[in-house]
Fold this sequence. Notes:
mainly alpha; N-utilizing Substance Protein B Homolog, Chain A; Alpha-Beta Plaits; 3 domains; three-stranded antiparallel sheet; 3 strands
Amino acid sequence: xxxxxxxxxxxxxxxxxVLSKGRPLKEALSxxxxxxxxxxxxxxxxxxxxxxxxxxxxxxxxxxxxPKPERLRPETRANLRLGAYQALxxxxxxxxxxxxxxxxEKATGKNTKLVNAVLRRIVEEPEExxxxxxxxxxxxxxxxxxxxxVRRYIDMFGIEETAKLxxxxxxxxxxxxxxxTLKTTREAFVEKLHKMGIKARPTEFxxxxxxxxxxxxxxxxxxxxx
Length: 226
């Protein structure tokens, strides 16, 4: 795939704009989204939003293999973060995570050997290391929220409610579709999605709604809505 349209290369560039230049994510996305092939846009969105949403956790996992990540080229650090998110939070096969991220590093950075070595370790050692015993530090890492905010939530809501709130804050929003009952039933539509390998469930409050529980490629979504 050409680097001009490679979703991982473009995700690296957007992530750099957001984290290094302070540009709002929506603005950075709007500058690059048209370059992403339509079939890759759902993946592109999930990769970017998910990496940013789980950034503290990702950096914690990378810290076991990168003692001084701040010394890396920004492009290399961005690629490692994106690759780690795919390995830890997305259903991307390990070999693809390593290969595709190394290819992205070839196009954007210079340290392919490091990227290859670190991501191989993450793929081969999927078990999560022990989290800190301190509640604030543990919640901060696990749910990727700053410690000052975790502390404030605990003061306001207590530990149990804070855990629920942080988990909810960091969950991937689901896309909800409205079923055209003139053409099919909601049950039949959900069954169709399951046969296509798409996780979906009826919504609780609307008799016509179906919530998609994972990203769906743009072309598939158009087919569903057609």
